[in-house]
Amino acid sequence: MSMKETLLKKINSKEIIVGVVGLGYVGLPLAVEKAKAGYKTIGFDVQPQKVEMVNQGINYIGDVVDSELKELVENGLLSATCDFSFVRDADFIAIAVPTPLDEYQQPDISYVRDSTKAVAKYLRRGSMVVLESTTYPGTTEELMLPLLEEGSGLKCGEDFYLAFSPERVDPGNLIYQTKNTPKVVGGVGKDATEVIAAMYRNVLQGEIFEASSPKIAEMEKILENTYRNVNIGLINELAMLCNKMNINIWEVIEAAKTKPFGFTPFYPGPGLGGHCIPLDPYYLSWKAREYGFHTSMIEASMMVNDRMPEYTVERAGKILNRFKKALNGAKVLILGVAYKGDIDDYRESPAIRVIEEFQKAGSEVEFYDPFVTEYKEKGHTMQGISELTAETIQNADIVVITTNHTKGIDYDFIQQNAKYIFDTKNATKNVKNRDNIELL
C-alpha cells in the first residue's frame, strides 16, 4: 500500500495522531477542532503556562468554548507538552507560530525556521507537515522543505508530505470560526495536496480549496490581507481629506453602501491592528524586492495606515487647542486598546501607538478597556483603570475612542460626562447629543 493510500485510510478511520506546534490564537482552536473530530491531538508550546492550562482543561482563547476544551482533555483526546519529541508519535503536524516583523520592518521568520528544525529531528516516514502561519510566497518550499529533508534524512513526496494551508482566524467573529471558515491547501505535489485536504475535510465544515502549489496558497493569503490594507489606506486618506473639506466620511460610506454591486465598505480608524493586515504587505514588499519589483501602491497604503496614530494625536491636539489646552500636560483618557471591538487581543493594536504618541507629546494618559485590563509592549506593562466612573471621565481633558467595543462601555454615559470626545471608530453613532463629539 502506498503512503497516500495508507494515510487516506488512517484519516478515514481516525487513526491519525495530530500535532499542533504553537497554542495561540490559531493553534489552540485548530487543536480543539482536530480533537473534536475524534483525532488524538497533542499540542506543543514553548510557554509552560499555556501547556499547563491546556492539560488542566483551562481555556485562554476567546474562540474556544471552555466546556469543550475541558471535556476533550478529560477524555484523553487533547493534551499539551513542551517536549518536541512528541513529533515521533504524530502523523499530522501543523505549525502555527508567530511571523512578526523585526525592528527594521522585515519578516522575522525565526519561529517558523526553528520550529521546522525541531520537527525535522523527530519526523518519521508517513507523516504530513503543514505550515499555517502567514508568510511570504516561497517559505514552504524554499525554507521548510530543505530543512525538513536535511534534518530528517527523508525525502519530501516520497517519505512525507508537506503543504501550506493559511490560517483564517478572525477573533471575535460570531459567524465564522475555525470550524466553518473555508480553507485553502497547497501541497508540494498533487498527492500531498489531496491527502492533507482530506485531513482537513474530516475535521472542518468549510469548503477546502485545493491549490496547485504552496506558493499559490501563500500568495492568496497575502492577497486577502493586502486587499484590506490597501482599501483601508484609501478610506483613511479620504477621511483626512474629508476632515479638511468638512465632510462626514462615515455618512459618505453609509451612502455608498446603498449601491448593491461594485462597492465593499471599509472604514477609517486610528491605524491597523491584529496579526495579519498590518504585517502581511511588508512580507510581500520584502519578497518583491528579490525580483527587482517595487510594490508602489501597496507601500503607499502602508504609509497612510502607519501614519494614522500620529494623525489621531494631531487631531486631538487641535481639539484641545480650541479649549486653550496643549497636548503637553493634557489628561487623555483612551477608550479601548484591543485591536478590534469586543475581544481581548491587542496584538499590533493602533491604540498602543496612539498612547505612545500622546506620551511623547507630554500628555498624561490613562486607558480603559472592558476586555483588556493591562497590556505589555516593549518590555513595559501598562495598567488600565479598573472602572469607568463619572469622575474619571470628567477629569479627562479629552476622551479618545480607539476601539469600537459594543459591550462594557456606555457611550451615552461617556458623552454626558466628557469635556470632549474624539471618536476614531464611530462608536458613538447612536448617541443623540453630539455637541461634544468629533468623529475622525
Highlighted features:
single chain; 440 residues; alpha/beta; Rossmann fold; eight-stranded mixed β-sheet; 14 helices; elongated
Description of the structure:
The protein is an alpha/beta fold and 440 residues long. The chain has 2 domains: 3-214, Rossmann fold (3-Layer(aba) Sandwich), CATH 3.40.50; 227-439, Rossmann fold. The protein has helices at residues 3-12, 27-36, 48-55, 66-74, 110-122, 139-152, 190-201, 214-244, 249-256, 280-289, 296-322, 350-360, 390-395, 411-417; strands at residues 17-21, 40-44, 78-81, 92-95, 127-131, 160-164, 183-187, 208-211, 331-335, 364-368, 374-377, 380-383, 398-401, 421-423, 437-439. The strands form 3 sheets. The protein has an 8-stranded mixed beta sheet, with helices on both faces. Helix 8 crosses helix 10. It is elongated, with a radius of gyration of 24 Å.
Short description:
The protein has 14 helices and 15 strands. With 440 residues, it is an alpha/beta fold. The protein folds into two domains: 3-214, 3-Layer(aba) Sandwich (Rossmann fold), CATH 3.40.50.720; 227-439, Rossmann fold, CATH 3.40.50.
Cα gyration radius (Å):
24 Å
Order of helices and strands: HEHEHHEEHEHEEHEHHHHEHEEEHEHEE
CATH superfamily of the largest domain: NAD(P)-binding Rossmann-like Domain
Looking at the structure, the CATH topology of the largest domain is Rossmann fold
Q: What topology does this entry show?
A:
Elements: H1 3-12, E1 17-21, H2 27-36, E2 40-44, H3 48-55, H4 66-74, E3 78-81, E4 92-95, H5 110-122, E5 127-131, H6 139-152, E6 160-164, E7 183-187, H7 190-201, E8 208-211, H8 214-244, H9 249-256, H10 280-289, H11 296-322, E9 331-335, H12 350-360, E10 364-368, E11 374-377, E12 380-383, H13 390-395, E13 398-401, H14 411-417, E14 421-423, E15 437-439
Parallel strand pairs: 1-2, 1-4, 2-3, 4-5, 5-6, 7-8, 9-10, 9-13, 13-14, 14-15
Antiparallel strand pairs: 6-7, 11-12
Helix pairs in contact: 1-7, 5-6, 8-10, 8-11, 11-12
